[in-house]
Design goal:
This protein is an alpha/beta fold and 266 residues long. The chain is built from six helices and eleven strands. The model has no long low-confidence stretch (mean pLDDT 91).
């Protein structure tokens, strides 16, 4: 089976898919977060997985990332588009803004983050973990749709499910990171290992531990959900347009990730 594009996001994106059929899948890494919904958007075949399950049953540190990526890979997916809620670490990244992530910093622990645990020894280079072609396309379509967005952003990924302390948030800000999230790692790294193009669309929902100079309070889960849901329709419009514009042939190097990934490390 050859599916054009995989989508990973919240359950609100089910309504995008035409002629949807839910398929129960299993992989050598277990079951995906939920049944995979397969259908079409703008004439292109789509496979959708709700990252936390249809009823939001998986916390960030328990999401079956490997099973999700493996399931999409088995379906023949070559490009993945995802949406994630992110907190802002900089005043200019305001709630409601979209961020097309280009770098991550991993601060998680205990997550199985590779498909390669035995021979051959594989050393993937994720210097540029996100697909440059999809990011450029997302930026272009956002301009056409008048979506306030940022063409790039470094996301620091924390383990969750708790939010940051003020001290942690200050540390991340001082490191120059732009946004914070709990699910981008290892998802994007696993896609890289499979040679799948990956677009991370961050939807800014809050200012993490707050902005002292603006008397903005620290984040809470209720507010995050409200802001995210408010922007779901905008994200749907963007993804629909993106899918219609994605070229059949790639101009990026994402699929070549494994070509120079074997050998003895430095």
């Amino acid at each position: 089976m050859g599916i054009d594009i995989g989508i990973i996001g919240g359950s609100g994106f089910y309504s995008l898919i035409e002629n949807a059929e839910e398929v129960e899948m299993t992989t050598e890494y277990g079951h995906p977060s939920d049944k995979v919904s397969i259908g079409t958007i703008n004439g292109k075949s789509i496979a959708f997985i709700p990252r936390h399950g249809k009823k939001h049953t998986y916390p960030p540190h328990k999401v079956p990332y490997k099973a999700n990526i493996e399931a999409l890979s088995k379906l023949g997916v070559k490009r993945i588009i995802t949406t994630v809620a992110v907190g802002s670490l900089k005043e200019e990244y305001a709630p409601g803004d979209f961020v097309f992530i280009d770098q991550f910093v991993n601060m998680t622990w205990g997550r199985d983050d590779t498909f390669f645990h035995s021979n051959p020894v594989i050393h993937i280079s994720p210097a540029d973990p996100y697909c440059s072609e999809l990011r450029a396309l997302a930026s272009s379509e956002s301009k056409n749709l008048n979506i306030k967005h940022h063409d790039n952003g470094t996301v620091v990924v924390v383990n969750g499910p708790r939010f940051s302390t003020r001290a942690e948030s200050k540390f991340f800000k001082n490191q120059g990171f732009d946004i914070i999230n709990m699910t981008q790692y290892p998802e994007v790294a696993l896609a890289k290992e499979k040679g799948i193009c990956y677009l991370g669309i961050g939807i800014v929902t809050d200012y993490d531990a707050g902005l002292e100079n603006k008397d903005i309070k620290p984040v809470n889960a209720t507010d995050v959900l409200k802001v995210f849901e408010k922007n779901v329709s905008t994200a749907k419009n963007l993804i629909t347009e993106l899918i219609s514009k994605v070229p059949e042939n790639k101009s990026c190097n994402c699929s070549k990730a494994l070509e120079e990934a074997t050998g003895t490390p430095k």
